[in-house]
Amino acid sequence: MERPKGISRDRKKNTVRAVMTSIYVLVIIIFHIVGMIGFSTSAKDLFTQIVPFHLLLMTLVIVLSHEPLNTKFLVFAVSIYIAGYLVEWIGVHTGYLFGTYWY
User: Fold this and answer.
1) Do 39 and 85 fall within a single domain?
2) How far apart are CA 52 and CA 29, in angstroms?
3) Domain containing 36: what range?
């Protein structure tokens, strides 16, 4: 009995996907552990300044690890971004939601 031609290719694709998923998880774990350690030391000010870069990296990991990248995912991601931005804006400018705070 002959094996269908696509099986070997699918197996390789699944192996590559599993390796990439492991790399993404490892990156997330390492960056969060380094962040927790950094925020509990005297380097807290430095780590506070690099939080935006950490958030961008985590966003990149989420986008790269999501399959398939399609319009539905894009609409979801943009909706979450807009909702988060609005919540922050309302919180900072009105004091509602989280009490009074500023950046």
Assistant:
1) no
2) 17
3) 1-67
The candidate with the shortest Cα–Cα distance to 83, out of 95, 91, 72, is 91
My answer on whether 74 and 35 are in the same domain is no
* Residue 46 clears pLDDT 90, i.e. is over it: yes
Model confidence at 20: pLDDT above 80: yes
d(CA 73, CA 37): 33
Q: 47-103, pLDDT tens digit by residue?
A: 999 999 999 999 999 988 888 889 999 999 999 999 999 999 998 888 888 887 766
Task: List all residues 6 or more positions away from 44 whose beta carbon is below 8 Å from its beta carbon.
Answer: 38
DSSP 44-57: HHHHHHTHHHHHHH
